[in-house]
Write a structure and sequence with these properties.
Length: 395
Amino acid sequence: MKKLVKNNVSWVGYIDWELETFHGDDYSIMNGSSQNAYLIEEEKTVLIDTVWIPHRDDFVENLKREIDLKKIDFIVANHAECDHSGSLTELMKEIPDTPIYCTALCQKSIEGQYGKQNWNFHIVKTGDSVDIGNGKKLIFIEMKMLHWPDSMATYMTGDNILFSNDAFGQHYAVAEMFNDMADQCLLWHEALKYFVNILNPFAPLVSKKIEEIKGLKLPIDIIAPSHGAIWRDNPMQIVEKYAEWADAYQENQVTIAYDTMWEGTAKIAHKISDVIQQKYPDTVVKVFNISKQDKNEIMTEIFKSKALLVGSPTCVNDILSSVSGWMSFLKSLRFKNKKAAAFGCYGWSGESVKILQERLKDAGFDVIEENIKSLWNPTEENFEKIPEMVEKLLS
């Protein structure tokens, strides 16, 4: 069922209420998601993107109920990732000669995923445009590494709609479709989580692209991303948030993340939290068990924090495997302008704290030397060192 976005532009995507993970199992979905595709029906009929492979049959059948597929003049593929391009194979069986407008890298990626089908690709770059009639045109804007090399956005003149693909989206199912109709707490949490876990590694490019878009001086009345709510109420608010988030963002918050074998490291984590709350009552403290709580949610809180403390006991001359894999993900997100410290228990050799410090430095954190390293269970003597570590971390 298509839903009206504005004038002759409709949403023709798929709301995925039951989705639980994305990017394999690397991104957690707590509130559903959507794959947003759009249909423009001016003098020319244009399809902007499709939906994910599991829903391709439903997508094509639903589209057939709305229009004669042969009336589609061309397709815009803003991004080749399969949640946007996954229905092309089924759709192109019906209309094999229909032109597909995309970047050169998008064509390469589509053919890499689905094989060379001799589809009618039209390669575009930033500033290229195509007339769609009624005095309107589509202008293409490359969005390299936001978040794939092939990504682009498409701007529709007249209605002033920016089809932004993966930029400015959320993994959030909004049946009401628009940002002003969504639950605002969920909307902004999911928008931030999406930025942190998907786009923050490319934050410098986000900043440059925002300046480039502003430099084009295009009036933007609607931002229509490929996931989540469509921004029609003050759409530039999400652009301003991206500019803020991309600039080494932090709040007055500290995150403590740990895993534990026999609760000793957990006791240190909780004691550190108590000390921070006592010494710095205006500072928000978040405590997470890495093996029990969602990593994407933890990373979202670390992004908001000015400092991070990570704890692990020593296990076979190393840190726990749960912490090790988590640390690899932490490094990939490329957080900036944050301090860090390490802590942990040990029974034999005690390497975990040093390993954590090295890996935090490797992840881009400013790591202090002060730490808490406890032989067996922590004692009052260990706890007495916490205030000094906290002061050094937060000064």
